[in-house]
Amino acid sequence: MQPKLVPETLLAAYAAGIFPMAEHRFDDALFWVDPRMRGVIPLDGFHISRKLARRIRRADFTISFDRSFAGVVQACADREETWINGQLFALYDQLHADGDAHSVEVWTGDRLVGGVFGICIGGAFFGESMFSRQSDASKVALAYLVDRLRLGGFVLFDTQFLTPHLASLGAVEIPRAAYRRQLRAALAVPADFDRQGAVPSGQDVVQRNAQTS
Q1: What's the pLDDT tens digit per position in 176-209?
Q2: C-alpha to C-alpha distance for 59 and 38, rounded to whole angstroms
């Protein structure tokens, strides 16, 4: 029987450049992943299109941080194929309680329509998953997350893999060796997810992105 992971082991694995996944939600077993090519979003290269900028400025959504962490993880796993099983859900929940995992929520009224969550170690943010139940909701979540990471002093935003959706927002692939070098440097950086404080206005998010892109 495979031993259960504990939060300390999970954090050590991320710090070493690997992460766990399950074959599907009902599979208790986990396997370790160490991609040859790693997806990252350069924090000074996040792309907000004119359409997305207008959407953010209109404030169609309400944004929050860490208001419904479990809700975001559940929504990310609520799909036909998912690698988030019960063991990972429990681990993420404990890391969140310990202050090592965070979420961005996107709301329409009291309905959670989008979000993203991940794990922090030093100046590295390891994005785990995101979801969208309304057009542009996950893009808006990422825009607010990147803004928060920049202001919090983070230097590495790891997306694990590169998808067309992430590529359209500025994500790139880098070789494993280059990722490991960036990771080692990021782990020594004293970043703080909560440094930004209150949720900023959409105008501020778009303006700061334009200044750094």
Answers
A1: 999 999 999 999 999 999 999 899 999 999 999 9
A2: 33
What is the end-to-end Cα distance of the chain in Å, rounded?
Answer: 48
Q: Which residue has the tokens 């929504």?
A: 75
Q: What is the 3-state secondary structure (H, E, C) of 57-124?
A: HHCCCEEEECCCHHHHHHHHHCCCCCCCCHHHHHHHHHHHHCCCEEEEEEEECCEEEEEEEEEEECCE
Three-state SS string over 1-25 comes to: CCCCCCHHHHHHHHHHCCEEECCCC
The rounded distance, in Å, linking the Cα atoms of 145 and 48 is 13
DSSP assigned state of 55: H
Token output for 76: 């990310």
Which phi-psi region, left, alpha or beta, contains residue 176 (left: φ > 0; alpha: ψ -120 to 50)?
alpha
pTM: 0.95
Q: Which two tokens stand for residue 40?
A: 């990252």
Q: Can you name the residues that pair with 116 across neighbouring β-strands?
A: 104, 130
List the domains of the chain with CATH numbers: 7-212 (3.40.630.70)
Of 110, 150, 104, nearest in space to 127 by CA:
104
Q: Where are the beta strands (DSSP E) in 135-209?
A: 156-160, 172-175
157 forms beta bridges with 125
Distances (CA, A) of 204 to 56, 141, 148, 173, 209: 10, 14, 11, 28, 8
Q: Report which residue type is found at 149.
A: L
